[in-house]
Design a protein that fits this description.
Layout (H helix, E strand, L loop, with lengths): L6 E4 L12 E2 L3 E3 L2 E12 L2 E11 L5 E3 L12 E3 L6 E6 L5 E5 L2 E7 L1 E10 L6 E12 L3 E12 L7 H7 L14 E8 L6 E7 L7 E5 L10 E6 L2 E7 L13 E7 L4 E7 L3
Parallel strand pairs: 1-13
Antiparallel strand pairs: 2-4, 3-4, 4-5, 5-11, 6-10, 6-12, 7-12, 8-11, 9-10, 12-13, 14-15, 15-18, 16-19, 17-18, 19-20
Length: 275
């Protein structure tokens, strides 16, 4: 059994006001990781907006988890911005993850480092936003360490642009896939020919050997990780065993989010299994 060691750490910082660039807290060095909060204007899909970012860095070989950690378990990140000032909303976005093989099985997440962009909407755009939040996430190598960070950063209304946040946003899966770059869901169907229902996903990709796919159910309903079943010209085929820890009746008529990645890009889409 993997032994868990609990690491609580405090991250706080208020950056100086500046109209020339982004702002950031100091790095805080926790147990086998360091973290900071950054903020600035950044662009996604040609639209510029105010973003913050939870920046986590780990030693080589360490990993942290996506919002759906995978079959082998893990700690998904949790973000709580209660107590912030002049904040109407804060929406966390997730860069495309990767499938990671470890001793317990396959997990989904990030190795070495990740920057989670946070779309920040001020109540009054003419005034500074003071972010205060509690962030919980897990890091793992030979042991798994759940960490809790208390974050604080004041963002002036004239904050500059952040190349780091723009780069991270470019790795967030979008429903509007870029033609010739991002993998897409070419087709899908249910196969019940052997009496064991499977969801079959045909992923169109310019780099099919590097393609992967993840499926999420609504409300935390468990869906097993897809398994690669075939490679075709310009396509990778995956199947999801809908008898493995899940009742297909719980999924029918509900939206399932399919996230696709390959060496060039990423995208996501929604499918609904017929009742």
């Amino acid at each position: 059994m993997i032994r868990l060691a609990l690491a609580f750490f405090l991250l706080s910082g208020t950056a100086a006001w500046s109209d020339a660039g982004p702002v950031a807290s100091d790095w805080f060095r926790g147990m086998d990781n360091q973290a900071r909060l950054i903020a600035g204007h950044a662009s996604r899909d040609g639209k510029t907006a105010l973003y913050a970012g939870v920046d986590v860095s780990m030693p080589g070989g360490w990993k942290t988890y996506w919002r759906t950690p995978g079959d082998a378990g893990g700690v998904p990140p949790d973000f709580d911005w209660t107590g912030s000032d002049n904040l109407a909303s804060a929406m966390v976005l997730y860069p495309a993850p990767h499938r990671i093989h470890d001793k317990a099985g396959d997990v989904v997440g990030y190795k070495n480092a990740v920057l989670f962009p946070v779309l920040v909407t001020p109540k009054d755009p003419s005034k500074p936003v003071t972010l205060q939040g509690k962030v919980q996430y897990g890091i793992c190598k030979d042991i798994c360490i759940p960490a809790e960070a208390e974050l604080q950063l004041t963002i002036p209304p004239d904050v500059g642009t952040s190349a780091e946040l723009t780069a991270s946003l470019a790795r967030v899966p979008d429903k509007a896939a870029r033609s010739g770059i991002d993998p897409t869901l070419a087709s899908w169907h249910l196969n019940d020919s052997a009496g064991k229902p499977k969801l079959i996903l045909d992923i169109a990709s310019s780099e099919p050997k590097t393609a992967d796919a993840f499926v999420e159910g609504p409300g935390g309903i468990y869906v097993p990780l897809p398994k690669r079943s075939a490679d075709q010209s310009g396509k990778a085929v995956f199947e999801v065993d809908l008898t493995d820890g899940v009742n297909i009746k719980d999924l029918k008529g509900k939206p399932l989010t399919v996230t696709m990645i390959d060496a060039k890009g990423q995208s996501e889409t929604t499918i609904v299994l017929e009742k």
